[in-house]
Structures are given as structure tokens and as C-alpha cells.
Write a structure and sequence with these properties.
The complex is a heterodimer of chains A (327) and B (172).
Chain A lengths: L4 E4 L3 H7 L5 E4 L5 H6 L7 E4 L8 E3 L5 E4 L4 H6 L1 H6 L1 H8 L4 H6 L2 H5 L6 H4 L41 H7 L3 E5 L5 E5 H4 L18 E7 L6 E7 L10 E10 L2 E10 L6 E2 L1 H7 L6 H11 L12 H17 L3
Parallel strand pairs in A: 1-3, 2-3
Antiparallel strand pairs in A: 4-5, 5-8, 6-7, 6-8, 9-10, 10-11, 11-12
Helix pairs in contact in A: 5-9, 11-12, 12-13
Chain B lengths: L3 E7 L2 E7 L5 H8 L18 E4 L2 E4 L12 E3 L12 H8 L9 H16 L18 H7 L10 H12 L5
Classes of the chains: A alpha+beta (327), B alpha+beta (172).
């Protein structure tokens, strides 16, 4: 690990001001950042520990939803009875990720900002445009089984690893930030992440020193919520493909549907195409297949991850069948 | 770059340390305090050998900086016994032969102790069919909740038996 200066945040304003240096980083749970610092993939010269700040509460919002402080741990969020009753897809998604030990440390804000687990991002002997801009992408012609199939570019096919964010995308979550100058803004979770394009090292729209304060969940949407994850092991593994659905059935038709995928893109992939295909469709496996085809229309595989395209379609079909009670 | 003063409270005892901020909690325990019960396995949060209990919650001590734990109550495997008697979970691991080489065992036991507290608090897991309900601690629940602790000797079935034994409050 490279040496760094350690600072305990005294206030929101001082934390943001300290972190405006380009080589500074906020640290909350640290479960991803410290791992990357040991490998010298992350080499901050200054760490601003936001542990002393508040931001660890879950509160009712005025509109009837929840405001989740950025420092709320993944465990606390998944175990909160309001989340379990009103947003079960979020509890399910969080509990599908990592291990109990990691969830006890990992935070809401940190989970959103975790870096990719692309094996070439981690392998410092290989080119990676995200780790070393301009060096190339070893995953394109490499062992890319875990990589993305949609929304990515010829410079980077890294997938985002969060389960939590997939449920939040389906729930239309909003991210509230504060910058060093005290200006706050609200960013729809879908707009938090930047497509890789030819700058895959720039992953979010956040400015240096801009801190996630909270994530707001709007009032729970009507319908059945469900998270389904497919992975190589039964527990403690990143998703090959996952899907969060919120679906309302009226007689034999779908009245409303929300669909978000994990493991297939640089961000939690909300699929307006699948949702449009589902509205008014019959509650049948054929309709669910059609929605999956619509969702993956622009997808392409890179060899070892070709299987993710049919797997994503089938995972969506299975999740929708479960959620609507179709045998 | 300079050292930081930090006071760590480990198993009820306060230790004033002067640490390079890069030192993980795991290394502070082992190298600075000489408490080698907590083990270093992968050093990247994947194996669970370094599991300790901080303010009642299990964490990977390899993935956190010691300087971030001023004022926290840290419990390690050395702190579980009471008056020279094994903690019930330690005794159950012995009774059920929940180990072979023993390297992962301190982490397994700390993790299992915290698991029972999490279950008692009503926390759900991925194995819980309806997350809105307080789950029954089945073997499937125990296995899921222990997935952050790897045992290369594969003593898993006896580890599950040991945990179930303590959860049920008695000997089998």
C-alpha cells in the first residue's frame, strides 16, 4: 500500500473540501478501496474517513419513501423492517451480495461507488483502460466470462458488481450529494454512472470532493417485487446475471412492470424496452421471453460471455414467472 | 506521511498505539499487540480467517484500517473465554470436531458467535424465503450465513452442527 495522509472528517464541509484534491479519496467501509490500495490499483495520497460524520440513519421521507444515509451499512439496510416490508427486492438484493462480514462494513454510498471486479482491472501486469487510460483492454480478447454485454464500448467491457444498485434502479432511487462549495444535487441512480465510451476510468458524474449523502427511495411502487441472481456458487459470488422486477398483474395481463439487470453492464441496467414490451402483455412465459428479447436486443457477447445474453433472458422470464405466479 | 495515535479497546483492554495509517486492524492485532489468534488468510476479505467482532458485529479485520477503530469495542478469539472456561461456541466446535487443521477456526468461531446475535436480532439472510419474517435457523440458514468463512479442510458439516448445538442451547 502506498503511503497516505489520514484525516478524520470533522464536518461535511471540511470533508468535501479536503477531498477536492485529485489524489484524495473518501473512505467509509473501505472493503473495496483498501483491497484495491493493497494492490496499488488505487493509490490515494490522502484518505478522508467519513466515519465520524452522521449519515447513518434511515428516515421516512416527506413523500412517503425512505431516505438512507450514505453510511448506513448494507446489513442495517437489509435488516430494516421498513425495507423488508415495503422494499423487499432491496433486502433480497443486498442479502444476495458479498458475505455477512462484508455487509456489516460496506455502506450504501460505497456500494454504489464500488469498482468493477473485471479480472484485468485487478491484474496489474495486463493492459486496462480503466486502471491505466490508453493501455488497452485485455478483457476484449481475453477471459471475459464475467464481463458486460450491453452499454459498453470497445475500450472497456467491465461490469458493475453491485446487487444493491440493481434493486435501487428498479425502485427509481435518487442519489443526494453535496459538493465542497455546499451545493447539493439529486441524481437519478440511472444517471449516476457514465458509460465507458473512450474514458472508462471516469465512472460516475460525481465531481472531486462531491460526497453522496443519502439515497432516497420513492414510495414503494405497487406490485410484486423480486430479485433473482444467478452465480457460480450458491453464496458469496458476484452475479453472472441478476434481475430485479416489480410487476403488477391484473387478471391475465401485466398492468405495470419494472425491470433492472445486474452483471450485464457498466451500471445497473434498467430496461425500458422490457418494460414497454410487458405493459398490457399476457401473463405468459411467451410474453416474458419477448420482454427478454427486447431487453437484450442491443447486447453482444465477447466470446466467453456470450452465454450471458440467453441467461439474462431466461433469468428475467423466471423472475417474472415467479412474481406473477405463472407455472 | 506520519503515524497516528490510536487507542484500541481489545477484549476490554485499552491499548495506546502509534501506527502507520496503512496498518490494518488485522496487522495491528497480530504484529503490534501480539494477539495471533486472529489469522491472516487471503488478506482480501474472501476467506474470513481474520473475522473479529467490532461493536457486536463481525467484520473482516484485514479490510479495515486500525486507525478507523478508535473507541470501538473489539472482540477477538482470545476474548471469548470467560474465567478460563471456553465460550460455548468454542466448546461446541471441540465437541463436534468442527475443524481439521484449525487455521480458519478462530474466524469461524467469531463469525458463528456474531451469527447467533444477528439471528436473535431477527436479521434475514439470502436463505430466508420471506425477508419480512424472522427466519428459523435451519441448516440452510446457517450455511448461508457462514458463507464468508472458508474452510479448506471442509469441516463444514461439523461446523454447522456445532453452531446448531449452541443455537439450540445445549449439547447434542
Amino acid at each position: 500500500m502506498k503511503p497516505f495522509r489520514y484525516e478524520r472528517a470533522g464536518s461535511l464541509a471540511s470533508a468535501c473540501a479536503s477531498a477536492t484534491e485529485p489524489t484524495a479519496k473518501f473512505i467509509a467501509g473501505g472493503t473495496n478501496l483498501l483491497d484495491l490500495m493493497k494492490l496499488q490499483i488505487e493509490t490515494p495520497t490522502h484518505l478522508v474517513d467519513i466515519g465520524p460524520l452522521p449519515l447513518a440513519e434511515i428516515e421516512e421521507s416527506a413523500e412517503g419513501g425512505l431516505r438512507i444515509g450514505a453510511r448506513v451499512t448494507n446489513s442495517a439496510l437489509a435488516a430494516d423492517m421498513r425495507v423488508r416490508r415495503r422494499y423487499p427486492v432491496l433486502s433480497q438484493a443486498i442479502l444476495a451480495g458479498a458475505s455477512a462480514q462484508l455487509r456489516n462494513k460496506a455502506t450504501t454510498g460505497g456500494n454504489l461507488l464500488q469498482r468493477t471486479r473485471c479480472s484485468y482491472f485487478y491484474d496489474t501486469t495486463k493492459p486496462c483502460n480503466k486502471r491505466m487510460p490508453g493501455s488497452g483492454c485485455a478483457a476484449l480478447g481475453g477471459l471475459n466470462r464475467m464481463n458486460a454485454v450491453i452499454g459498453v464500448s470497445s475500450d472497456c467491457i467491465a461490469a458493475h458488481g453491485s446487487d444493491m444498485a440493481v434493486a435501487m434502479a428498479a425502485l427509481d432511487a435518487r442519489v443526494e450529494t453535496v459538493a465542497a462549495d455546499g451545493v447539493t444535487r439529486t441524481i437519478p441512480i440511472d444517471a449516476l454512472y457514465r458509460p465507458p465510451g473512450n474514458t472508462p476510468h471516469i465512472e460516475t458524474v460525481l465531481a472531486p470532493g462531491e460526497l453522496i449523502q443519502s439515497v432516497v427511495l420513492p414510495p414503494p411502487p405497487p406490485g410484486q417485487q423480486l430479485y433473482r441472481k444467478v452465480r457460480d456458487r450458491a453464496s458469496f459470488a458476484f452475479a453472472l446475471v441478476s434481475v430485479a422486477v416489480v410487476v403488477t398483474r391484473e387478471d391475465d395481463r401485466v398492468r405495470a412492470a419494472r425491470v433492472a439487470f445486474g452483471g450485464i453492464s457498466y451500471k445497473p441496467w434498467r430496461s425500458a424496452e422490457a418494460e414497454a414490451a410487458l405493459i398490457g402483455a399476457t401473463v405468459t412465459r411467451a410474453s416474458f421471453d419477448a420482454a427478454g428479447r427486447a431487453a437484450l436486443r442491443d447486447a453482444r457477447g465477447y466470446g466467453y460471455n456470450d452465454f450471458k445474453i440467453p441467461l439474462a433472458r431466461r433469468t428475467l422470464r423466471a423472475a417474472l414467472a415467479d412474481a406473477t405466479g405463472v407455472i | 506521511m506520519h503515524n497516528e495515535n490510536v487507542a484500541l479497546t481489545v477484549n476490554g483492554r485499552r491499548h495506546a498505539l502509534d501506527l502507520d495509517p496503512r496498518v490494518t486492524l488485522l496487522d495491528a492485532l497480530r504484529e503490534n499487540l501480539g494477539m495471533t489468534g486472529t489469522k491472516k488468510g487471503c488478506d482480501q476479505g474472501q476467506c474470513g480467517a481474520c473475522t473479529v467482532i467490532v461493536n457486536g458485529q463481525r467484520i473482516n479485520s484485514c479490510l479495515t484500517l486500525a486507525v478507523m477503530h478508535a473507541g470501538d469495542e473489539i472482540t477477538t478469539i482470545e476474548g471469548l473465554e470467560e474465567d478460563g472456561n471456553l465460550h460455548p461456541m468454542q466448546a461446541a466446535f471441540v465437541r463436534h470436531d468442527g475443524l481439521q487443521c484449525g487455521y480458519c477456526t478462530p474466524g469461524q468461531i467469531c463469525s458463528a458467535v456474531a451469527l447467533l446475535a444477528e439471528h436473535k436480532a431477527g436479521w434475514p439472510s439470502y436463505a430466508t424465503a420471506d425477508v419480512a419474517t424472522a427466519p428459523v435457523l435451519t441448516d440452510g440458514e446457517i450455511a448461508e450465513r457462514m458463507s464468508g468463512n472458508v474452510c479448506r479442510c471442509s469441516a463444514y458439516s461439523n461446523i454447522v452442527s456445532a453452531i446448531r448445538d449452541v443455537a439450540e442451547g445445549g449439547r447434542i
